[in-house]
């Protein structure tokens, strides 16, 4: 074709490749110790258990498991999810659950059903990059609300809502990752979750609660999702099997009011007809035979020492002046470096020393976060964590000396 540009939709014409993904391609070099990705540790994949389950599914339900399924997802898996979330305080009916092709599809669906070009969505500063990309692909204007150690700052959020409403702008939703936030690692306490629900009720707004990490807890007691306090159907809750079983399954779920669920199903029909039926049957069986809870315990046992190793190595190798709170769960440590350092520029120096991370600006819709970086601790071995943190410490130290 000579000229595809003239054929593209306005939307596709405006789509740009993600700079971050381009940068991260470089980290495929096996000599680089990468703290950049959000990958589970491959050692956590329960290969033998899955093999047994696959045989059982093929023997007992093969014809159904290899067939198309309903758009909403396998009923018995939705039933299992309802049973599991009830333990977290969420009351739901299987009819209010959709099995999606990853939470990423749920984020895209939310963009599709709520956002016209120029519409406003609210998110955290920082927030999950994949959320930013999904909403921006619908040409949303994202307004960022700063986080403190307890997550999104509710007083600032309320001011922003008032300001927008005064200009006749209705924010379409508030996107939050309240538990072991990606990238900041912080947890919103229950009192703030209730404040957020009150706000959504007072201003009649939708909250999108994204919860992939809630079960990866190392030294914190369980905390109820925001959805558990939602009596009026303001919250679209989503979680995923990606971090507790396998991202390759591409299985996640949403829980929302019947009306929103209907809308999302219609939208999903056009996206993929149905989520992978085979992996739905496998996940269903894996939960039913009791393997999932045991497996989550094993993942936590694998990740907690890695988290500790990263925190200790940071203490040993990073020059003074950095800030990082020990994450109590999840997969990420969020580090802020002294004034004068730009982590985006420093990334290239890190690569020369064969170490990689994601720079903070990637997670900020307001161009901020220039002194911060996200470090993943789940993927690398403890030896790699120690060596990688040593290399990163040297890079930071050199940078700081150059500033003097
Ligand atoms: C906050 C958040 N939401 C959504 C996702 C996407 O998850 P999935 O693999 O289910 O698409 C991720 C993945 O890292 C995430 O961190």
Give an overview in words.
This protein has 404 residues and is of the alpha/beta class. The chain has 13 helices and 13 strands. Strand 6, helix 8 and strand 7 form a beta-alpha-beta unit. The chain is globular. It starts with 9 loop residues before the first helix and ends with a helix. 46% of the residues are buried. The model has no long low-confidence stretch (mean pLDDT 96). Bound molecules: pyridoxal-5'-phosphate (PLP). The site of pyridoxal-5'-phosphate has 14 residues, from helix 5.
Features:
single chain; 404 residues; alpha/beta; five-stranded mixed sheet; three-stranded mixed sheet; 13 helices; 13 strands; binds pyridoxal-5'-phosphate
Largest sheet: 5 strands, mixed
Strand % is 5-15%
Query: What is the count of DSSP helices, taking H or I runs of 4+ residues?
Result: 13
Indicate the multimeric state: single chain
Helix content: 40-55%
Q: Compute the average pLDDT.
A: 96
Poorly predicted runs of 5 or more residues: none
Tell me the radius of gyration. Answer: 21 Å
Specify the overall morphology: globular
Give the termini separation.
54 Å
Present as ligands are: pyridoxal-5'-phosphate
Number of strands: 13
Layout of helices and strands, plus pairs?
Layout: H1 10-14, H2 19-25, E1 33-34, H3 47-65, H4 75-86, E2 97-100, H5 102-114, E3 120-125, H6 129-136, E4 141-148, E5 151-152, H7 154-166, E6 174-176, H8 190-203, E7 207-210, E8 235-240, E9 252-255, H9 258-272, H10 277-288, H11 291-317, E10 332-336, H12 343-352, E11 355-356, E12 358-359, E13 372-376, H13 382-403
Parallel strand pairs: 1-11, 3-4, 6-7, 7-8
Antiparallel strand pairs: 2-9, 4-5, 8-9, 10-13, 12-13
Helix pairs in contact: 3-10, 5-6, 5-9, 11-13
Bound molecules: pyridoxal-5'-phosphate (PLP).
Residues 38, 102-104, 128, 130, 177, 182, 210, 212, 240, 242, 247, 252 line the site of pyridoxal-5'-phosphate.
């Amino acid at each position: 074709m000579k000229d595809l540009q003239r054929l593209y939709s306005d939307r596709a014409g405006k789509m740009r490749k993600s700079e971050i993904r381009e940068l991260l391609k470089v980290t495929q070099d096996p000599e680089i110790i990468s703290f950049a990705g959000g990958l589970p540790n491959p050692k956590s994949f329960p290969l033998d258990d899955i093999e047994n389950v696959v045989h059982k599914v093929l023997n007992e339900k093969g014809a159904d498991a290899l067939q198309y399924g309903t758009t909403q997802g396998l009923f018995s898996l939705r039933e299992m999810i309802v049973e599991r979330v009830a333990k977290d305080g969420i009351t739901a009916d299987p009819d209010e659950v959709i099995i999606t092709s990853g939470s990423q599809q749920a984020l895209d669906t939310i963009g599709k059903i709520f956002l016209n070009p120029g519409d406003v969505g609210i998110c955290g500063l920082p927030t999950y990059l994949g959320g930013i990309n999904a909403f921006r692909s619908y040409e949303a204007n994202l307004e960022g609300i700063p986080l403190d150690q307890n997550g999104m700052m509710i007083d600032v959020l309320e001011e922003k809502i008032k300001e927008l409403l005064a200009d006749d702008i209705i924010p379409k939703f508030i996107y939050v990752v309240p538990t072991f936030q990606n990238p900041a690692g912080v947890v919103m306490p229950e009192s703030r979750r209730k404040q957020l629900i009150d706000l959504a009720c007072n201003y009649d707004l939708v909250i999108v609660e994204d919860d992939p990490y809630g079960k990866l807890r190392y030294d914190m007691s369980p905390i109820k999702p925001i959805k558990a306090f939602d009596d009026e159907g303001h919250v679209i809750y989503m979680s995923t099997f990606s971090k507790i079983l396998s991202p390759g399954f591409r299985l996640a779920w949403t829980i929302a009011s019947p009306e929103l669920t209907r809308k999302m199903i219609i939208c999903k029909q056009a996206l993929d007809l149905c989520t992978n039926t085979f992996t739905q049957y496998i996940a269903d069986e894996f939960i039913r035979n009791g393997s999932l809870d045991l497996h989550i315990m094993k993942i936590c046992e694998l990740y907690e020492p890695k988290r500790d190793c990263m925190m200790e190595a940071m203490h040993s190798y990073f020059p003074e002046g950095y800030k990082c709170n020990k994450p109590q769960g999840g997969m990420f440590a969020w580090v802020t470096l002294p004034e004068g350092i730009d982590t985006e520029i420093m990334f290239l120096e890190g690569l020369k020393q064969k170490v990689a991370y994601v720079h903070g600006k990637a997670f900020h819709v307001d161009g901020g976060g220039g002194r911060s970086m996200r470090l993943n601790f789940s993927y690398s071995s403890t030896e790699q964590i120690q060596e990688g943190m040593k290399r990163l410490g040297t890079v930071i130290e050199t940078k700081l000396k150059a500033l003097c």
